[in-house]
Amino acid sequence: ETWRFICTRRFGVENVKAWESSRRWIEIYREMATLNIPPFCTIQGSEAIGKGKVKGVSAWASVERRSNGETARSVKVKGKEDGFDRYTSLPIVEVRILIQNTATADGVAVVPEQTLSIDTSTRRRGDEMIEVLSDDRFRKSIANLDGSPFVNNCTSDSIGGEMFRLPLFDSVVLIAYVHAKGCSNIDKFLSKANFTKVLLNINGKTMPLVIPFDKVQTESKKATESIST
Predict the structure, then answer these.
(1) Which of 66, 98, 125, 195 is most buried, with most CB under 10 Å away?
(2) How many C-beta neighbours within 10 Å does residue 150 have?
């Protein structure tokens, strides 16, 4: 029962039910941990695009694909000449990152305040896409795995410098809206995007958790769709 409880804490009740068998729970846990199964989540984006891990913290990235696949949204921006707020159409992609402390039992994983970016560099030039900062409607948010609002768990002396803390097996979903320059639809975004990263602080040491995007999966999906049509 102890290992079943540990499985439930890390992977969620629904995943535990799906994996339940006649094997011992310690064996089931080891297999699920080796595969780095994400915890059960009801608000992952409609399309998984990548995953990564570092020092006992794992992350799974996804995007929310709109029904028409297009990215154009009305966004409030400041005029370059007069500084007044105005609305303009920009390509926006909703990126969701599920982050879990999977193995850092000896310390809490701290995620500091940061601006999310997506690397779109090519061999010829470096480039990136940045989350929207000019419009509060697209403000970055944090949610629990069931979609309920996340209650800030930072210490009182760290507010302003931290987004959240993750004790062992705790998870959150980070939701950000990225200005997808030059990408009129989600497929163009996926073809350009290389990776994203989330800065972590574990035991006083800051490090990046890099999440490479699965280009092979994206290209395979596009090829399948073109054949079917």
Answers:
(1) 98
(2) 15
